[in-house]
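User: Hey, quick favor. My workstation is busy. Could you predict this chain's structure for me?
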Amino acid sequence: MSASKVETKYSSRAKRWKLIFFGLVALLVVVILLSINIGTSGISYSEILAIFGKQIPGLNSLIDPSLIHGNNETIILNIRLPRVIAGALVGAGLAAAGVMYQGVFKNPMADSYLLGASAGASLFFTLAVLYAGTLGLTLIGLGMFQIIAFVGAVSVVFFVYFASRVGNKVPLTTLLLSGIVVNIFLLSIQTVLQLRSGKDVMGIIAWTSGGGLTSVTWTSVLSIIPFVFGAAIIAYFFSKDLNMLSMGDDTAQHLGVNTEKVRQILLFLGSLVTAATVSISGVIGFVGLIIPHITRLLIGPDHRILLPTSTVLGAIFLIACDAVARVATGASELPVGVVTALVGTPFFMYLLRRKKTSYSM
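Assistant: No problem, here it is.
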């Protein structure tokens, strides 16, 4: 193929990538507005836009106060908006972690839930809540709980990783079985803690197990922004390394990639994001499994495009799942983790079926 044809082909793909990415960004804005509109208090879109316009300097004087009724401004700004933003951050973070884990392990079935990172973060977060007074954490704030959750996530992921290694390889079967066994074990410990705890913390423990965004505040939203954005930005600079890893360790090493160091850094970053999301939403599974796979189908395997596109699609997916969780049963909310599991479980079985020729149980 001539150089001009290669350049034309790359230019065509670049235009397609940009079109898909900015299309998803536009869809994210639409999904945010739709989700903010969902709730027991019927608030029109014109009123929602008026409330947002009122917060913008220079534009607030043009907003007709009669468009905003009762305490709807408080409902939108202090209840619905932080919940939707939290959903976007958690979805984006889990999708980014999924891209990292799948790139490191070179298979589409690795994610923070199946590798035990979510369970590890959840268990350590639960222990911190239970023994906050004893450990002197009460006055330190949410940041310390996130650090403890991070320690749990990192410890479990590295344990599963090294326990699954056979020589210089990590067989898919061993990895999945190790992750599932550790997941079950940690969730069993958490169940015991839930049964032994007092009523005042039982709800918190149950929430971390099922996943949900009902208790989100602006404080908790702001607390995870540095972790999600920071880890995703740093991971982006390893996109080329992930592309080389996908060609095999030997090839990557010949091209100058320190494969073991890159793996450890990305496992660290993925666990950091997972811990941050668990600290405000509990365990929400399958986002990191589904979203990177769908994104690959849309734009291909290039991690320079895959990572940012997956974060946007992850945000859209979790906001939509949370909206479904709020309206599915009418009288009460479903945990958003239940909705993602209902979507993710058959998807996981589909991936297993596709991969069955590459390994035997």
